[in-house]
Design brief:
single chain; mainly alpha; 14 helices; about 80% helix
Length: about 300
């Protein structure tokens, strides 16, 4: 290795990437897995769309102000528009749908349904010429069988509206994730801040149109859950995901999809006393197997 190569390999940006990528993965693996139960607790004091809108407005505003204070460059008009699109898809429909569904669906089951985003990401990538290979198609088939089994379980069968929300949510999240890779976006952290701020707008609109209101002041427990979602779920978790989208392959960024479900199910059962049926467990295992097959296939290719 010559001196130039050594200098490049030891550059601060490369060293930072080596340190930050594992930390970002921990953020999306463990922190995001715990936020599903956090949502369930926060929903005891907040309406679903208002909960998501307030969460992302505060988190996005704090991160945006911090980045500007540190000399960051504000997004251009085009970048704001692109962030509005991705914020609507990822946070407005994606996270908003999960919040709506968790009014009637266990947090662990919601996490399993959202894991199917990795399946849709593999399909939407074909719009840009990256069609799944044979193993990935097998993984897609396995994953969608898991989605069908999960919808036959007691949780989703007894909540048609929740089931619809949990199908629309990962589809919107997947398309937004793929779309953002091919359009002009701000640098990663500013992108996260702008998407959270922009995503709070459709959530506020959905809250207004659906006639949401606060029956009473949120309890200290609900407020604590909201604080957890803002700091850990949004400032750390979502920022970590955006960082991974910008600095790693999409397959690695989306690998959280087969780690979050078991984490969320375990937390929901241990802390929330949530019940999981046999079909729910079977569907979870099948979906995770399908996502893992796709991820491993992409890693090898």
């Amino acid at each position: 290795m010559n001196d130039a190569a050594r200098a490049e390999s030891a550059s601060p940006s490369r060293l930072n990437s080596r340190a930050l990528v594992p930390l970002a993965l921990i953020g999306v693996y463990l922190i995001w897995g715990s936020t599903y139960y956090g949502l369930r607790v926060a929903l005891t004091g907040f309406p679903p769309f208002a909960l998501a809108g307030i969460r992302f407005f505060i988190a996005g505003g704090l991160l945006f102000a911090l980045l500007l204070w540190r000399g960051g460059k504000a997004p251009t008009a085009r970048q704001w528009f692109n962030c509005l699109i991705t914020g609507t898809l990822l946070l407005g429909i994606g996270n908003g749908g999960v919040c709506y569904a968790e009014q009637t669906v266990a947090s662990g089951i919601a996490a399993v349904a959202v894991a199917s985003a990795a399946l849709f990401i593999a399909i939407f990538a074909g719009l840009y010429g990256h069609w799944p290979n044979r193993i990935e198609w097998i993984g897609l088939g396995i994953g969608f069988v898991g989605i069908i089994v999960l919808n036959l379980g007691g949780e989703l069968r007894g909540s048609p509206a929740g089931a619809i929300a949990l199908v629309a949510s990962p589809i919107a999240w997947a398309f937004g994730s793929v779309w953002s890779k091919h359009h002009d976006m701000p640098e990663p952290m500013m992108s996260a801040a702008a998407q959270m701020l922009a995503g709070s707008l459709p959530l506020a609109l959905a809250s207004f149109v659906s006639g949401e209101h606060f029956a009473a002041a949120p309890s200290p427990t609900a407020l604590a859950a909201m604080g957890y979602l803002i700091v850990f779920g949004s400032l750390l978790g979502f920022s970590s995901y955006i960082y991974l989208l910008h600095h790693t392959r999409p397959v690695l960024a989306s690998s959280y999809a087969y780690v979050n479900p078991p984490v969320a199910v375990l937390i929901g059962v241990l802390l929330g006393g949530e019940a999981v049926s046999r079909l729910d467990i079977v569907g979870t295992v099948i979906i995770v197997a399908g996502v893992a097959a796709i991820t491993l296939a992409k890693a090898k290719s």
